[in-house]
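yo, VanZ-like domain-containing protein is done. seq:
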Amino acid sequence: MKKFFSTVWPPLVVFAIDRTPIAQQLYTSTEWFDDVMHFSGGVAIATMTILCAHQFAAPWWRHAPLTHRSIIAISTTACAAVVWEWYEFLSDQLLLTQHQLSLNDTMFDQLYALVGALVVVCIYTLIKKSPR
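structure:
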């Protein structure tokens, strides 16, 4: 169980911050806060993917090309971003919230998540390629 929580903490932290009353206030008062949260979510999901893969994956993961590992981290983040946008859509439809302001907003939310994942993948690549 300890290994599990050592890998899933990044998205749990972002989700916990997202649910706080302060964050809810910032969504309405600060225009860019939503963008920061989606970027942070992308960072968190990509980080979790890499940590999980190192903790739980078969030995082939350590020997897989860095490109393949990067694609998996970005793909997982893309899937998580789509699932999150569906959550926002269903919340708007069923609970009459206003998470999705427009198609533009939704597409940029997904873009920020992917940019967050790209930042993680770039840092991961630099760490893996650096001489030890």
